[in-house]
């Protein structure tokens, strides 16, 4: 078994990280996702503040309107948690496991549906439900290349 190259004065490798496998760049994929998650967390804070002010300023509003506000708040909370879980899964749990990037974690598979539900546009919710079903049917990102328009 041969050792990595040394500097000639001791048996210490020149580059201790040179023996590790190279990880793929995440700048244009998970880097963008984590920046989007940070921005969405700030907007989620604004949503919490607006919800608090709504219930303080309009306590006698219609029950239907208050239910819509609570439902939106719950869906946004779940969506935010899914974004944070996705970041944690890929960037912490599987930090040095590039093979994990090939498959979608359950939280990223649920995002299309939970992104569409607060919008309450039935056509968009139907499309998001179909995309979520496809994400569970085709668990690897390579399988998405097989989906074609017909």
Fold and architecture overview:
This protein has helices spanning 30-57, 63-93, 106-116, 122-137, 141-144. The longest helix is centred in the middle third of the chain and has 31 residues, at 63-93. Helices cover 60% and strands 0% of the residues. It has one domain (31-144). The radius of gyration is 23 Å and the shape is flat. With 150 residues, it is mainly alpha-helical. It contains five helices and no strands.
What secondary-structure arrangement, pairings included, does this model have?
Blueprint: H1 30-57, H2 63-93, H3 106-116, H4 122-137, H5 141-144
Helix pairs in contact: 1-2, 2-3, 3-4
> Which class do the helix and strand fractions yield?
mainly alpha
Number of helices: 5
Largest sheet: none
Count of β-strands = 0
* Low-pLDDT residue spans: none
Question: Proportion of β residues?
Answer: under 5%
Mean pLDDT: 82
């Amino acid at each position: 078994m041969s050792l990595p190259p040394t500097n000639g004065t001791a048996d210490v490798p020149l580059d201790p990280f040179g023996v590790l496998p190279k990880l793929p760049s995440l700048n244009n994929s998970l880097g963008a996702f984590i920046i989007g998650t940070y921005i969405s967390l700030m907007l989620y804070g604004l949503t919490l503040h607006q919800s608090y002010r709504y219930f303080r300023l309009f306590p006698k509003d219609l029950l239907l309107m208050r239910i819509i506000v609570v439902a939106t708040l719950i869906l946004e909370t779940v969506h935010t948690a899914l974004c944070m879980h996705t970041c944690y899964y890929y960037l912490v749990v599987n930090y040095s496991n590039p093979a994990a990037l090939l498959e979608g974690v359950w939280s990223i598979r649920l995002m299309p549906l939970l992104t569409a539900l607060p919008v309450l546009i039935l056509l968009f919710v139907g499309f998001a439900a179909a995309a979520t079903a496809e994400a569970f049917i085709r668990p690897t990102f390579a399988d998405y290349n097989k989906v074609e328009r017909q």
